[in-house]
Amino acid sequence: MEIKKRVAEILKSTIASTPGQPEFYQAVEEVLTSLEPLLKRENKYEKYNIIERIVIPERQILFRVTWIDDKGKIQTNIGYRVQFNSAIGPYKGGLRFHPSVNLGIIKFLGFEQIFKNSLTGLPIGGGKGGSDFDPKGKSEGEIMRFCRAFMEELFKHIGPNKDVPAGDIGVGGREIGYMFGMYKRLTNNFEGVLTGKGLNWGGSLARTEATGYGCVYFAENFLNKYDEFLKNKICTISGSGNVATYTIEKLYTVGAIPVTCSDSRGMIYDKNGINLETLKRVKEVERKSLVEYAKEHPNAVYTPIEKYEKGRNAVWDIPCFAAFPSATQNEVNLADAKVLHKNGCRIVVEGANMPSTLEAISYYQENGILFAPAKAANAGGVATSQLEMSQNASMESWTFEEVDAKLHGIMKHIFDLSYETSMEFGEKGNILLGANIAGFRKVADSMIEQGAV
């Protein structure tokens, strides 16, 4: 059967069997359509029905989370864990606590995680989880009670050689700590079942910085292929969580000038460069809005989200050489991509998961903007999580420099593999195609070798 027709059939059947999951369909379409050159060359993937199998999770777990708020009222949320693919190792992927979380969001994240984890070269499969619980506005006690209630069900489905969750949006060191404490109490085991742990009890140095640092390492590898560099270049970044903050930090160390950051209420543009000390204090210590940043830096321009042009993200209005979307999915649409191109953007490096729409990606590729997709560019976080697993298993603790050096090497490996695969299929520099094919091929071959699984 013609490959395009077969892919279209898979997409159609996926939509029919799992209604109401647009983000998941988008992730599936992005991967499957870019696999066409591989599927034409290798008929084994059709013979063993891989593309139909790989879009269906091995296991989907939904559960009720019941907890008591500070007023003594019983609250209820939905918990999710999608264990998508274990062909190359135990499930690995973060937990997201955010009111937008639903099954489709978790499935898109888990599907992306399969290929991201494959690209690292490390033995980890793909999974994702979370809840529609919103930590914002909750007290420390409420967050702790929710995390403990969430783990009361999740612990039945995870383990150091089965499924090892980590953090994501809304889940940082505090939340991981509360969940780990409950896991330990329920199982009477102290083991590396979660990553992103505190340094006093099994965490890894450089884990907090890893995703942001890795994005910059990937960008430099990509640009160097074209004899270009980040030094002295203006960079725009969305978000103000771990990914954005440590992308900004690493950009400074390579001599770039990061000038923006954002949160759910608005964005900051500081033409002299974002003040990293203030950003960390406001977002990591005080956990406040970027409005506080603007109060301390009157020369910085604060734009509340109400003043964004409809259907646009104001961050991308700022002229830049490199853009690092690091907030959430689909935050860069076609209109944003056109503005980036008009303003001279040379490269888009995805720090968040799937932050560019399919239309934006097509526009990048058609107009000469270098594009570093999330599954390749932001894989440093999960790679360092696996390094934390390795340290836990061997009961060792590596220095920051040791972990950072391994991270640097892993990001170079991911870029080289993606770039070389793009050349192999006659699409030099198409890192999206290269990353998707390279990530898929390893998982698919493993599935074939393991039989009808």
CATH fold node name of the largest domain? Rossmann fold
- Tell me the strand order in the biggest sheet: 1-2-4-3-5
What is the oligomer described by this structure?
single chain
What is the strand tally? 13
Query: What overall geometry do the principal axes of the alpha carbons give?
Result: globular
Number of domains: 3
Q: Helix fraction? A: 40-55%
**Ends apart, CA distance between termini:** 23 Å
Mean pLDDT: 97
- Structural class per helix/strand content? alpha/beta
Query: Could you name the CATH class of the largest domain?
Result: Alpha Beta
Question: Low-confidence parts lasting 5 or more residues at pLDDT below 50?
Answer: none
Report the sheet-strand fraction.
15-25%
The number of helical elements comes to: 18
Rg, nearest Å: 21 Å
CATH architecture of the largest domain: 3-Layer(aba) Sandwich
Largest sheet: 5 strands, mixed
Q: What is the CATH homology-level superfamily of the largest domain?
A: NAD(P)-binding Rossmann-like Domain
